[in-house]
């Protein structure tokens, strides 16, 4: 399927477990982003990547790890999940720099118990 | 630091009413970009418009229009003759080309409910 996909769409995990959220885009966009959406905070940037093997922190990076070995994939790992990481996570991509429109995936709803 | 404020948390209107969603931003850059995104109840985020800081022309797309005023640091969004399908959360966002390059800062969103 063309576009940007995320998996899983829903995930329940326990505190302390490692969780990886997957993001895949078929447009060959250079830039990819991870956001979390929480009530009262809108969307906040966790990490972003300008190209394969280039990543940088966003506003709320603590507790998260990213990698980008291939242009089309940008997985987000919660190394040791905490209840405060319960959120909806959105992946996005952009053809050029971030000030071009970003196209979002459908989101992953993560619950940490 | 860049900041976006959407003071209206929730707005409720009756179908066919016009509604304006406010967005006020803060930035020290002279080159920046403003966006509006729509998030319907299904949850996905849909890009609506991008505006750069050098283009203050208002834009109209069907029932949607945007009013960008640098003097008041505002980028307001108006829906004319609202419809039930317009019910969604609308986000305004800002990206500074010079300072934060690739970062979009979102406002907290405005929940619009259009009642039949």
Notable traits:
heterodimer; A: 113 residues; mainly beta; four-stranded antiparallel sheet; globular; B: 116 residues; six-stranded mixed sheet; 0% helix; 53% strand
Could you walk me through the main structural features you see in this protein, from its secondary elements to its overall organization?
The complex is a heterodimer of chains A (113) and B (116). Chain A is an all-beta fold. In chain A, 0% of the residues lie in helices and 51% in strands. The radius of gyration of chain A is 13 Å and the shape is globular. The mean pLDDT of chain A is 92. In chain B, 0% of the residues lie in helices and 53% in strands. With 116 residues, chain B is mostly beta strands. The mean pLDDT of chain B is 92. Classes of the chains: A mainly beta (113), B mainly beta (116). Chain A binds chain B through residues 31, 33, 40-45, 48, 50, 56, 58-59, 88, 90, 92, 94, 97-104, 106-107, and chain B through 32-33, 35, 37, 43-47, 50, 52, 91, 95-97, 100-109.
């Amino acid at each position: 399927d063309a576009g940007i996909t995320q998996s899983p769409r829903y995930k329940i995990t326990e505190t302390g477990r490692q969780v990886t959220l997957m993001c895949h885009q078929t447009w060959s966009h250079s830039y990819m982003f991870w956001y979390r959406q929480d009530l009262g905070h809108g969307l906040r940037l966790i990490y972003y990547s300008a190209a394969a093997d280039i990543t940088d922190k966003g506003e709320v990076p603590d507790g998260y790890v990213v990698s980008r070995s291939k242009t089309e994939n940008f997985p987000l790992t919660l190394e040791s999940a905490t209840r405060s990481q319960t959120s909806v996570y959105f992946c996005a991509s952009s053809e050029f720099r971030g000030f071009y429109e970003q196209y979002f995936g459908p989101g992953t709803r993560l619950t940490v118990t | 630091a860049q900041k976006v404020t959407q003071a209206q948390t929730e707005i409720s209107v009756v179908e066919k009413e016009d509604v304006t969603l406010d967005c006020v931003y803060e930035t020290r850059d002279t080159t920046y970009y403003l966006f509006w995104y729509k998030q319907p109840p299904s949850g996905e985020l849909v890009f609506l418009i991008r505006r750069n800081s050098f283009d203050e022309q208002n834009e109209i797309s069907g029932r949607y229009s945007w009013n960008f005023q640098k003097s008041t640091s505002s980028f307001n969004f108006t829906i004319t003759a609202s419809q039930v399908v317009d019910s969604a959360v609308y986000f305004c966002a800002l990206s500074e080309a010079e300072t934060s390059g690739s970062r979009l800062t979102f406002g907290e969103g405005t929940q619009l409910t259009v009642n039949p």
